[in-house]
Amino acid sequence: MRHSSCLRRPLIAALVVLLAGAAGKAAPAAPSLVVVVSLDQFRADYLERFRAYYGKGGFNLFLERGAVFVDCHYRHSVTKTACGHSVMLTGVHAAQHGIIANDWVDRTTLSQVSCVGDETAPIVGLPPPSGPQRPGLDNPYLGRSPRNLLVTTVGDELKLARGGRPKVIGVSIKDRSAILMAGRLADAAYFMEEDRMVTSTYYQTQLPPWVTNWNEAKKVASYFGKVWDRVLPEAAYAQQGPDDVAAELVSHGLGRTLPKRVDGGETTPGAKFSAAFENTPFQSEVLADFAKTVVENENLGRRGVTDVLCVSFSTPDTIGHAYGPDSHEVMDNAVRTDRILADFFRFLDRWVGLTECTLVLTADHGASPMPEVVLATQRGVPAGRVKSAEVVKVTEAALNERFGSLANHERWLVNDDASLIIHPAALAEKKVPAVEVERVVQAALLTLPYVRAAYTRTDLMRGEAPGEAGRRMLASFNRERSGDILFQLQPYFILSSRVSGTTHGTPYNYDTHVPLLWYGVGVTPGVRTERVGVDDLAPTLSRILGLPAPPLAEGRVLF
To answer: Is the distance from CB of 325 to CB of 372 less than 8 angstroms?
Structure first.
């Protein structure tokens, strides 16, 4: 016994030393900096599809050293940019958060509403307009704020719980992405208009000097005339099929094939060049540069409190819409995005240390393959493009047959993407209940071979929508804002007024399946195969931060 005790003493002493050393290197109780990265229109399959070409420190930082949820989906039906970004940090869907689309028709005024439009919050950072303004939602001077977002975000809850000391900042090319991720109590949301990063008076009455200096450096103009060419040998892109596909979008002087000279056909930087630039990976380089500038000038992660930076890269969406997920352009952009992320994470490591950070990466939606590609490669699988005007024509013809033509009003219905609103004047003239009109429109929609399902306001208000597809539609249906009849197209059919490019917005896997990757403080590494939702992000991040989840959050804690 005495011999055993003597042996144990040095072992115990050594163990104490090891434990003391381990305690000195223990992970912090809370991260100094949280960075939530959204890649707009980045399908989950891109992670494995192009993984052979990813380097160290970008996607592989998560895939090799973080938590990887390989079966993450949106649980709503309307997979649009604003809807997805609203789910990420609120943990709820449009039924609660109120962002039913990027923009929608107001049920009362029948006017178009931007999801982040707010006339009371003018843009800050643009020079005074020099001429007539573009009408409607295309006006870059249209005020912006998160007032249409009806719930709080994790960032909001963090500021409430910590006396407002944490900084919460959103950054994106798109206004809606920066604003809806950052939330209602954010310190700032910066987005790009006219090649400048701007904000609105909801956050600040004037730009900080460092943002002004960044704008004056004319970062976008420095790319004028640059050539977008492949970063890999051309043979590597063969897995994507041919580079020249007739259904790809030809615009802004870029053409359908790589390489592409980025000048918009202009001799000096102008509006056409700016439009071309938005359809290239160079835009992500500029956004990453601005994100670094935000971190440095706001001293994020070095202030003795947890700060939150939300960064949404919009470029995958513009490239994806133009060329489709099976294009050389999408693959090249994914590889370039990996390198941009790796560089950004190295910067964060130098600035605050990745061991002090919690990083999350996801996407707001995926994308449908172009119908023409489906028809060419999947024999016998139906696919196609559907014009909204055709849908309206068929449904209004059914209404005229059932109730008679309108005498005092031109239209029965107001079209709003995959939603139809019954015009109040038509109801008043015919003196028929709205529910009867809904049923006629629903029945007419279901006669169309490319329509899979149609739902009436009356049924959705009652929660009567059968099956998984119905449950997803209920998640996207907001009682105050949604239309009267909502419908879903069959797989591989897209609503498109164009004859090129692709889109998203359906409840199918190619639109709902997105990455969900975690790294850093509070994260348990490993690959998980269970089905999870993007709505799980908010309660999980809240747990890591020691916060209550946003009040209506529907998801679960993943770690």
So the answer is: no
